[in-house]
């Protein structure tokens, strides 16, 4: 450490905060902090440890700095992001690559030197007049083979406060791992601010919004944005660093929920589930009667010959639209009672409560949302009605305010995974639930071939069917073929591995009507739980194993008190041969032309599935009812 470095730190930090940094005794940390301070030039600096006092400081700063405002319910606050900052900005999220390296044509990259140069211009004095928060977190439970310590620098108290709710504190973990620890680094600035509704401040310079990922130094820069998916270092930014690391080391980083599904006599079987954003991941993890560990990001490692997984987070940054008492009783309760909750981009009503699209009860006539004063029926320039809250409006709270958290949430060894679920927004091809034949078939057909219709979770057009392998395409930091290969290798060496399933909550009939109700997913979970414990039979089809009517009928009656009609089963579980073949052809084309390193086995699995479908088509026609197949 040079004399100058120490002078800078002593100059801008209180004695107490300076000591907190010195106690870490890690020149790489000090170096990262001082070089960031030199360029961003904050007015003052706060160093947060894991103490209650430091958490309280951040919480209060978010109010004081007009990034959050108190709502009527105790513990509730509102935060707004700017009108153009309501989702992940994929176009400006780029990997900085040294010359001669590539991540394949599908990933958004740029030359590293050019990116760093552009950043140095954008970041110069970007924190002038503002306080810098230096925060230490841990991805995954502390003191665990999964733990990755992280440092977040941000001039947004809202970002720091959100991370305090969403992640485990990591100052102690840094001390434990010592100065040789590998850690991830994040620099965030909301940039210049302007006033939005309620006097809250939002990022102003959207043309200078950037999320640049430097894989070489394991540092991510996020500038001129506040929306969580762009700004929270430990969420989707860290995920990209971890995907890069895990592929080198042979473990997995997935866009997955992690939950315990309860079976007969109190048995709990653990599942991970990968779904693209806004496709039912959180609501699945929050099913009534089941146990939640996580709703967004899981790490999976092989420990003692078993696949074990943890949630790297400790809170939920969830979509609020449509949450209601009937379908989401646990989330509803958590949002309606005093607790530490940040609401973002919902409507604030004159009585200082919140309203979101689809919230039951009286629809307010007026209020304030992220774009300012709002009234019912308000239209924008093109004549479209402006909804009360944004589709991607969210809530942030700690998992431990929920009654349904699993006892192993913080277990350093995670939980044993018995099933892996893949699900996308698919209106016309796959059945509501199906088990793959084996690991390779599952990884290829259920995971790597996942397609989904786009949603409001990212900026851009909605409803377009896109290729989204393992629901993880937005976060991949390695070539797609390498990523698929890492998934294939991961389970292949195990004597017994988790079973792989697909679910489809979005299937429609040919007239465009939904074929299932929202809560039917409870039954698909129970069926998968019975399958991984070898308690129910299944029917073999060309695409995988589907449930028997009688088993589902019993589950519907027992769990949902609903009479499941045979005619509904026959429609829902009809194998749609033309749609399945069209999908295989789309996939074949993508793997041949857009992905340069597709593992050869992918083509074999696709071909075999196509052959099974064509043979069945010859025998039974285009649309094959479950009654045609033999029981295994
Ligand atoms: C998602 O969009 O997948 C989310 C929210 O979980 S974000 O933080 O934007 O990634
Ligand atoms: Mn997500």
Notes on the protein architecture:
This protein has 632 residues and is α+β, with helices and mostly antiparallel strands. It is 32% helix and 24% strand. It is built from 18 helices and 35 strands. The mean pLDDT is 96. The site of manganese (II) ion has 3 residues, from loops.
Please supply descriptive tags for the structure shown above.
632 residues, globular, 3 domains, 35 strands, Phosphoenolpyruvate Carboxykinase, domain 3, alpha+beta, Phosphoenolpyruvate Carboxykinase, domain 2, binds manganese (II) ion, binds sulfopyruvate, single chain, Phosphoenolpyruvate Carboxykinase, domain 1, 9-stranded mixed sheet
The CATH architecture category of the largest domain equals Alpha-Beta Complex
Total helical segments: 18
Number of strands: 35
Share of residues in strands: 15-25%
Return the domain count. 3
What's the shape?
globular
* Radius of gyration of CA atoms, rounded to a whole number: 25 Å
The helicity comes to 25-40%
